[in-house]
Amino acid sequence: MENVDFTRPIHQTATVFVVNEGKVLLLKQERSKFWLLPGGHVENNELPHEAAVREVLEETGLQVELFQKPDESARTSIVTPIPLPHHMKLLPCRDKKDLDFVFTAKVLGGELKIDAESKQAKWFTKEEILNTPEVGPNMKYYAVKILDEFGK
Length: 152
Hints:
Blueprint: E1 10-20, E2 23-29, E3 35-36, E4 39-41, H1 48-60, E5 62-66, E6 87-93, E7 96-110, E8 118-124, H2 126-131, H3 137-150
Parallel strand pairs: 1-7
Antiparallel strand pairs: 1-2, 1-4, 2-3, 2-8, 5-7, 6-7
């Protein structure tokens, strides 16, 4: 992490590996040459897992259910457990840093469509992920791992 400027403000984001029939959904957006996950900023008074579900619906038209579930055994009269992300990452983004909560989900309903931010949406198999140059190394690593875990 030596190349990350830690003086920049941190924004929270939530992204989602949407898994369906052994494939993951990625989006091609104008702002990047790489395929990206659906997701975006966590709004004020919104929790990361809520942002994840909302962003997938806004960007793809798909209703999803997160694979991550809260640990209800930890519930008390003052503590409400929330789903932990599959993983988290810190990455530079223009004049800030994004602390990204990365979730995994399955499709419940809806019809795949793209919003104004995206120019294409595509379901990728593991082989396509590994053989597509516009899928970055971190995305390849996690997509393969997640398809092995949830893509059956």
